[in-house]
Amino acid sequence: MDAYHKLRSDLEVSRQTHSGKTFYVIKDPVSERFFRLREPEYFLAEALDGRTSTEQVLEKFEQRFGLKITPEQLDKFIDALRQKGFLYSKSAEYQLSRASQVESKRSFIDKILYLKLKAFNPDRFLQWLYRWFKFTLSTPAVIISSLIIVVGALQVKASASLMPTNVYQIFSLSSIPLLILSIFMVVSLHELAHSIVCRHYGGKVSEMGFLLLYFQICFYCNLSDSYMFEKKSQRIKTILAGIYFQAFLGAASLLLWRIIKTGNTVSDFLFLTASVAIVTLLFNLNPLLKLDGYYLLVDIVEIPNLRSKAFNYLKQILRHVFIEPVEKLAEYTRRERNIFMVYSVLAILYSLILFFWIGSFLYNLLTDKWGGVGFLLFLSLMVVIFNEPIRNSFRSITNRSERQGVSVPKSIRFYIWMAVLAVIVALLFLFPVDLKINAPMTIEPLEKFTIKRTG
To answer: Can you list the alpha helix ranges (DSSP code H) found in 201-289?
Structure first.
């Protein structure tokens, strides 16, 4: 192994404490990626200063922690740092130069459920905005806004009987421009509230833009710098800022709607704004989506990357039980395992319900319009969407069969078409299909009568 290695000096480090344990969050300012190291791991990384040999690093580690690691284990750790681009080397410079050009591999389902479009770097704009609106973070401003939220919540209860009538009156084709304006204003101010609080605690917002999340259009801001906040309360306040301001905006709009005369454009806009703020607030609080509710849950349970860890843990358990025993399962505490199981199961159920609802809508839409051709279009669409999971499943079955000495076709396409054929046959035999013919039709009466006036 090489005698000397050097950690990059431009990496940003934040020391944090979770559940009595010390962690170090490292930010790569070039790739905008974040990593969390435990105290022993960070000690090893920091010891790589370009002047200390690996043998000396091993000695220092043993003196500091009273633990002995082998040169092979240190080599693996150094290789991991090198792959992440944390060490000075030619390969690291090449990877960093391409960091903005390389897109991570994502499945087709991930792409249609989470599509991000970066818009602009808001640093200068947020500096100006913070100077003008930092007073909103003062104690008097928070007290006043809290009172408005409470009064608005009471007004929602008092005006509940009036809400349905106004919803049906306002949500019409003519109100679409006002509705679009309301949605844009609510989500934009929501994200700006996040950004101002993040800026208040010293964080930077590197990008803003739009994303398509579970077929919902959203405006987003990159709050990754909040990972570097040493205090947990600062990270939670940054997340709560958008939720809090949205609740304030909805309450203030509802109160103004009750005060001014109804039936005009301003009144309709205020009611739409209040409705959008309340509905999207509930959507935002859903921890099963990677929105505010999810990141708030991550900070509360103190498990970074909760979603990916939960799904990976569930995948390991299912593979261990139904496919083949896993030699070594990931080591987690009992609390973490319980959280992973609950979260992964609920997230999968939510996704299945959402897909079922959207699938039912598309099925009825296509079959009602084009009959059998519509059904084939729907089936083709399902195959395209679930192509990767189907391929992975059959690839796993093929690999397992080959290890057991069973010869099976290796073409994934063969299995896909066989599955499609099986589904079509099952639908033909198990589900009755009404024959529909799309053609003009004339209905004539069985008898005709002519009524004449006599006399």
So the answer is: 232-259, 265-284
DSSP state of 28: E
The 3-state DSSP class for residue 3 equals coil
Question: 252 falls in which pLDDT band (50, 70, 90)?
Answer: very high
Angular region, 217: left φ>0, alpha ψ -120 to 50, beta rest: beta
Alpha helices in 9-107 (DSSP H): 39-47, 54-65, 71-83, 90-97
End-to-end CA distance of the chain: 120
Q: DSSP 3-state helix, strand, coil percentages of the chain (rounded to 5)?
A: 65, 10, 25
What is the total residue count of the chain? Answer: 455
Q: At what angle do helices 334-370 and 306-318 cross, to 10 degrees?
A: 90
DSSP at 2: -
Picking from 192, 181, 186, 187, the residue whose alpha carbon sits closest to that of residue 125 is: 192
Partnered with residue 115 across adjacent β-strands are: 212
Tens digit of each residue's pLDDT (9 = 90 or more) over 105-127:
555 555 555 566 666 667 788 88
Edge-to-edge strand list for the sheet holding 33-38: 12-18, 21-28, 33-38
C-alpha of 21 from chain center: 28
Q: Which residue has the tokens 């913070």?
A: 130
- Tokens standing for residue 435: 């024959």
Q: Give the Cα separation of 53 and 58 in Å (integer).
A: 9
